[in-house]
Design goal:
Chain A is mostly helical and 347 residues long. Chain A has 13 helices and two strands, in the order ααααββααααααααα. Classes of the chains: A mainly alpha (347), B alpha+beta (652). Chains A and B meet through helix 1, helix 6, helix 7, helix 11 and helix 12 of A and helix 13, helix 14, helix 17, helix 18 and helix 19 of B.
């Protein structure tokens, strides 16, 4: 097992390196030149102290200095990539890259990216924990119920609803729900994170937050219902057709025990993969929901950064997403082995 | 089926066995079984089709889907006038409906006047009763022009004119009434405006207090006319009362101080008038409307040179230009014209124009021979003159309509814009047309993306599954790398990077298709690989190998057709997914961008509760089309998967 995990981790690192390289190359296609901009700013600031006619010379000097500082003085993109990672020295011989903890600098907010994403990360986790709890709490019982009562009127209705649920894009459901709950029923606020101008504390603040979180929460839960319910139902049906279930029934066990103790344990194995994937989504957040409801989370930061071409932020977020998804695959494989004793992962 | 056929032949009773030898009975049963078998055997394709047809829901969904395809790909052929970047300020945010030209029955035989400037039209009967039709809800303000004030309903009205969002009427007693939007000073005196809780505004020319106090002498009113958010009353003695929003009319101040006027008209941005010697258009400025031309797209010459010793008799304005009727009965024009206008008609030798009216973008004219001509912009059918206009004595303007009325005040006919079945969007474009055009774009993007992804996926899956070993490991690792890329963020970053590059919109759209295709192939390739692995072990492949068939031939000619059914189902479902992804990307502004419509970017205006509530038609119809299409794709795909997969159909 240990050896397997190590092997997978090594593979993960290789994939991460390849992807980050691809990403860096795409990123370097953008004609954004931070050193040039900084040099221009500085020239403007010291305009009066420069002798007449020597602006160009001064500018070149400062520009070169900034390029060396940011490690963009090399034309070779591979060198720039290695510097960005932090394994190739800058002009002055020092290392300053991801490995040294330099995750980039946001140009719009004038602060390091890590600092920038802290609060959004907390917000995203907050909303997604609730979404996950709600989602699992609804889909698993519903899926089991549908599997047990397969072919009944209720099951057919759920089948139709879930197919509609997973066919509709998130933004469409969001628009529909805003129309229904905000415009027509006036139950929830359409966007924002707290009542403007309020300074609630304690329980009151929590309630206010929940009030604003409600609609995005409902939308993101609703969107995940369709696919997940169908998945649970399918794996439960498969489990119910197993021989062991027939045996259990033949032994005269109560139906409740058969379903929840025997069948569900077997159905759980494929479900686990989905649940893990879902938990990882907690950190990445939903681009769509956060953007529509003005929820200041990771997805919103990413879109804002893309719109304003704040590419350091985009790069880090993208790497973060990639790492999450790679770690997720690894985690799923490992947990699969733990949950299902028949799967021997260490071969 | 088989049970029914065998039942009468089967003899299993005691007597049967007694009188028939065992072998005879066995032979009978064999025959029966064979007959049953022959009946039961249908080709696998036929079986799948039968099973599919048994599912009513899926068949319905398939029909709807095919209908959608036909509408989206054939529909655009019927809209030759459609333009991607069409905008029109006077047609913004109009509710769906086809009633823009529906003159109320009560008014039809008793028309005194009709006037329209924006989305609605007002009419006045000879009895002094006011009628309003068209799209009367004004924006998100909650103002409804159709709510005619009670005092207006109870008074005999003498004159009426409609602006973009307000109506002005003069009663027989000279009192002036107005209703509609008031926030930009459309009809309030300064006192009334402040009383409504707004601070006074230097950009508003308020309604003259003397008119409110004394009213006007109806018999002496030469013209009552409204513009975008302004109104004017011109008296016979040349006195001009002018009020409204100065922001849209740059030269309005000059008119407020102007000497006596003989005529006045409003374009969308300027006031134009006729004064003094009638040898030029009075606009209060040296550079406005100084050139005239004979044809809409002809050469412009200075007005004085063109006129010679002729004078200007009357002026009529549309949103962008002015038509001048000269003393010799000929016409000339001043201002801008679009390139694809319907040209000015050639009149016969002794034919004179006796009346000319100007809508938002078109002119209609009546000649002394009883002929009617329309020219100008024709995007909304404004210049398609109805054939049955015989007996017309007067013409009235709507913004995009012309109403022809006979000598005894009966409506003869009308032509122009009937309405918008799905309303208009925030830029004034027809939502229905954009849905059809956008559907074509959305479906094309989805289809091309799926084709790209399936080509990559099938080739890699076949190679990987068939050859196995090192090739398999390498290819599957590559697939894993691709599937590790988070889809939406990555597509967004690529699209954003492209946005900073200098490429044409078509190239951008094609690259978006490629991005979608390249990011979706791993799932399909894994599926194909699994199927190929199964097929590789089957006997027909062993046989082919034994016969010495080339390996690539076996992979693509023997195995691929056998896994085709599974691939087709996945393609169907992937098509839906790609459409959804494209919509999401475009909705966020990273996919296909504005002038080109897609179902995704048509929805990105619907991002706040006010708009979602007030302009429901701008998202509801588009959403409906998108939803119906993707739901149908998924239903059909699911049904296909069920009927093609013997295991799941056995479960049923």
């Amino acid at each position: 097992m240990g050896k397997y995990v190590l092997k997978r981790l090594g593979y993960l690192v290789i994939v991460a390196v390849i992807l980050s390289f691809i990403l860096f190359m795409i990123y370097s296609l953008v004609p954004a030149n931070r050193a040039y901009k900084d040099a221009q700013d500085q020239i403007k600031a010291m305009k009066n102290s420069i002798p007449e006619g020597q602006e160009q010379q001064y500018f070149d000097e400062i520009y070169l200095r900034y390029q060396r500082m940011y490690g963009t003085d090399s034309k070779n993109p591979v060198v720039r990539y290695l510097r960005w990672v932090g394994v190739y020295p800058l002009y002055d011989g020092s290392f300053d890259g991801l490995l040294q903890g330099n995750f980039g600098y946001s140009y719009d907010y004038k602060k390091p990216v890590v600092e920038l994403v802290q609060q959004p990360m907390i917000n995203t986790i907050k909303i997604n924990i609730w979404a996950t709890i709600l989602g699992l709490g609804i889909t698993i019982p519903l899926g089991i119920h549908c599997a047990v009562k397969r072919g009944s009127k209720g099951d057919q209705a759920v089948q139709v609803f879930t197919i509609i649920g997973y066919s509709l894009p998130t933004f469409l459901i969001a628009i529909l729900f805003i129309w229904l709950f905000c415009a027509k029923l006036h139950i929830f606020p359409p966007s924002g994170m707290s009542t403007p101008g309020s300074h609630f504390t304690g329980f009151r603040a929590f309630l206010d937050e929940m009030y604003y979180m409600a609609l995005p929460l409902i939308v993101s839960t609703f969107c995940s219902l369709g696919g997940m319910t169908r998945y649970v139902r399918a794996s439960m049906i498969e489990a119910l057709n197993m021989d062991c279930i027939r045996t259990a029934r033949a032994k005269g066990l109560r139906e409740q025990v058969v379903i929840y103790s025997h069948a569900f344990r077997n159905a759980l194995i494929p479900i686990v993969t989905l649940v893990v994937g879902w938990f990882l989504g907690i950190f990445s957040g939903s681009l769509m929901v956060e953007n529509i409801f003005g929820w200041n989370g990771m997805g919103r930061v990413m879109i804002a950064a893309l719109r304003t071409a704040d590419y350091d932020v985009v790069m880090l977020m993208q790497m973060f997403y990639i790492m999450i998804s790679l770690l997720g695959t690894l985690l799923i494989d490992i947990i699969y082995g733990i949950v299902d004793p028949r799967v021997r992962v260490n071969k | 089926m088989s049970k029914k056929n065998t039942a009468p032949v089967k003899r299993t009773g005691f007597f049967g066995r007694l009188f028939h030898s065992a072998s005879a009975q066995f032979a009978d049963e064999m025959d029966a079984a064979r007959a049953a078998d022959v009946e039961a055997i249908v080709s696998p394709g036929r079986q799948v089709l039968n099973n599919f047809l048994d599912r009513k829901l899926a068949v319905g969904a398939l029909i709807v889907l095919i209908g959608m395809f036909i509408v989206m790909f054939v529909g655009p052929l019927f809209m030759p006038k459609y333009k991607d970047n069409y905008t029109d300020v006077t047609q913004q945010n109009m509710a769906p409906g086809m009633s823009l030209m529906k003159v109320p029955d009560e008014l039809k035989n008793d028309i005194k006047t009709i006037d329209g400037y924006g989305t609605f039209t007002v009419g006045l009967s000879n009895a002094g009763k006011v009628f309003v039709w068209g799209s009367t809800q004004i924006g998100t303000t909650g103002v409804d022009i159709g709510d005619i004030p009670e005092e207006v309903q109870n008074t005999k009205i003498a004159m009426i004119a409609a602006g973009y969002d307000h109506v002005v009427a003069i009663g027989e007693d000279g009192k002036i009434y107005a209703w509609g939007a008031w926030q930009l000073g459309q009809y309030d005196t300064e006192e009334e405006y402040i009383a409504k809780g707004k601070p006074t505004d230097p950009n508003i020319a308020f309604f003259p207090q003397e008119l409110r106090d004394n009213g006007v002498d109806v018999a002496n009113v030469k013209k009552l006319i409204c513009g975008y958010q302004v109104s004017a009353i011109l008296m016979n003695d040349g006195t001009l009362y002018l009020w409204g929003n100065k922001r849209t009319y740059a030269n309005m101040d000059l008119f407020l101080r102007a000497p006596a006027m003989d005529d006045i008209a409003f374009t969308l941005n300027y006031v134009v008038g006729l004064a003094g010697k009638h040898n030029a258009i009075y606009s209060g400025s040296r550079d406005l409307f100084t050139m005239v031309k004979q044809e809409l797209n002809g050469k412009a010459v200075p007005t004085a040179d063109y006129l010679g010793d002729r004078t200007i008799e009357a002026i009529t304005a549309t949103n962008k230009n002015v038509a001048l009727v000269l003393s010799d009965g000929s016409l000339c024009f001043s201002g801008d014209f679009n390139l694809d206008c319907t040209p000015v008609p050639k009149l016969q030798a002794d034919e004179d124009i006796i009346q000319i009216v100007g809508g938002a973008y078109h002119y209609s004219a009546l000649t002394n021979k009883g002929n009617i001509y329309s020219w100008g912009q024709n995007e909304l059918d404004q210049t398609e003159v109805a054939k049955d206009y015989a007996g017309t004595a007067k013409l009235f303007r709507g913004s995009c309509q012309t109403y022809a009325v006979s000598e005894d005040d009966k409506l003869v006919t009308s032509w122009g814009l009937k309405g918008y079945p799905f309303g208009t969007d925030v830029r004034g474009a027809n939502v229905f047309q954009r849905i059809i055009q956008g559907g074509r774009m959305t479906m094309t993007v989805g289809a091309v993306a799926v084709i790209i992804s399936s080509i990559i996926g099938i080739i890699i899956g076949c190679l990987s599954g068939y050859f196995g070993g090192k090739v398999d490991i390498l290819l599957m690792r590559i697939a894993e790398i691709f599937s590790a890329i988070p889809f939406l963020p990555f597509a967004m970053i690529l699209s954003a990077v492209m946005g900073h590059m200098d490429i044409s919109e078509n190239a951008r759209i094609f690259i978006i298709m490629c991005i979608l295709g390249v990011l979706t192939w791993p799932g399909l390739s894994r599926l194909v690989r699994g199927q190929v692995l199964l097929a590789r072990e089957s006997e027909y492949v062993t046989a082919a190998k034994a016969m010495g068939v080339k390996e690539s031939t076996i992979a693509f000619k023997h195995i691929l057709p056998n896994v085709m059914s599974v691939i087709l189902v996945t393609l169907m479902l992937d098509f839906g997914t790609c459409m959804l992804t494209e919509s999401s990307l475009s909705y966020l502004g990273f996919g296909v961008q504005y002038p080109r419509p897609t179902w995704g970017n048509m929805l990105n205006g619907a991002n706040n509760a006010t708009i979602i509530n007030a302009y429901w038609w701008q998202w509801a119809f588009t959403s409906l089309f998108l939803a119906v299409t993707t739901v149908c794709i998924n239903i059909v795909g699911d049904a296909l998967r069920d009927v093609m997969d013997p295991r799941s159909s056995a479960e049923k």
